[in-house]
Amino acid sequence: MYDLHIHTNHSPDAKPGSSMEAYAARALELGYRGIGFTDHLEFDPDDEGFGFLDYDQYSRDIDRVRLAYEGRLSIYKGVEVSYQREFSDKPASWFRGKDFDFIIGAVHFVGREPFHKEGSYFRGKSPEQAFRPYFEEVRRAVESGLFDVLGHLDHLKRYSTAVFGPYSPDPYADQIRDILKAVLKSGCALELNTSGFRHAFREPFPCLPTLQEFARLGGTAVTLGSDSHAIDHFHAGIPESTALAHSAGMTEQIYFVSRKKQVAVLGAPPLSPIRGRGRPKAG
Ligand SMILES: [Zn+2]
Ligand SMILES: [Zn+2]
Predict the structure, then answer these.
(1) Measuring CA to CA, which residue among 221, 225, 206 is closest to residue 283?
(2) What digits encode the pLDDT tens for the residues 33-47?
(3) How far is the CA of 241 from the centre of ligand 1 (A)?
(4) Measured between alpha carbons, how far is residue 112 from residues 53, 85, 186, 240 in Å?
(5) I want to staple 106 with a disulfide (CB 3.0 to 4.6 A). Which of 3, 134, 151, 277 is the partner?
(6) CATH number at residue 43
(7) 154 lies in a domain?
(8) Which residues are in the CB-under-5-Å shell of ion ligand 2?
């Protein structure tokens, strides 16, 4: 098992105590083969996370944990970049000379507007008016060629559900198909982000019908990520999401070493109890 989406105390929104050591210890206890740390990297100077990631300190911390767990647990150096069209020229120069294993590209903004702030993004919008520009941004993120992994496709549903009710991909099937085709064409990996199991709708990002569409188009592999922002989040939703991925026809999981894609069998992890269940938290 691999969990390739983990936030530590190098992210401004991680819970206190989210140390790399604590995650590694938990991963080993649960029988994981590898984990990837993916703290936030923002390029919008107006965002509170701008300038938060200290690359040198991050690298030193990862090196220390790697050494401590050598031969027992593989630790990958990743990062989660917020894709914004306006700042799409920034990542290339920032990453120059830095040795990451993989880069997740994720859409947290439409234009420069964050959609996770108290529902203001949805005010005065129909579902189509909210989702169509979002999926447009996701397609651009994939086509930018900047990223190894497309993070949490359909993440907008995390916030839209409270406004519009349950999410369905059907009205946006054309856009989602284009995104999935772009994923397959670009060689970017599709993430199955399990953090949706920490919310009332209890499904991953993307949802099962989108995974099935991915399989119809020829997709066979995903990356798995819990998007943990606290130690209790680690592993949450991974067993359920792996079962869904199998049911959709996925057979492989992807991880990366020095930005080179590696393929492993998508195993069936034992269904162990999820820590923190019943105590939904932000994150
Ligand atoms: Zn994210
Ligand atoms: Zn994340």
Answers:
(1) 225
(2) 999 999 999 999 999
(3) 17
(4) 20, 9, 25, 34
(5) 151
(6) 3.20.20.140
(7) yes
(8) 80, 227
Distance CA 215, CA 130 (A): 26
Residue 106 located in a structural domain: yes
Spacing, Cα 71 to ligand 2 middle (Å) = 27
Alpha-carbon dihedral 213, 191, 25, 19, rounded to 10 degrees: -140
Could you give the number of structural domains in the chain? 1
Ligand showing the shortest atom-to-Cα distance for residue 151: 1
Token digits of residue 78: 């990743």
Q: Identify whether 16 is part of a domain.
A: yes
Distance (Å) from CA 40 to ligand 2 centroid? 7
Residue 270 placed within a domain: no
Sign of CA dihedral 162, 163, 167, 172: negative
- CA 29 to ligand 2 centroid distance, Å: 23
How far, in Å, from the CA of 182 to the mean position of ligand 1? 20
**Closest ligand, as measured to the CA of 7:** 2
The ligand that comes nearest to the alpha carbon of residue 10 is 2
The domain containing residue 260 runs over which residues? 2-265
User: 268 and 109 in contact (C-beta within 8 Å)?
Assistant: no
Which ligand ends up closest to the CA of 158? 1
Indicate the pTM of the whole model.
0.94
Tell me: the pLDDT tens digits for 182-227? 999 999 999 999 999 999 999 999 999 999 999 999 999 999 999 9
| Distance from residue 155's CA to the centre of ligand 1 (Å) | 8
Counting ligands in written order, which one lies closest to the CA of residue 233? Answer: 2
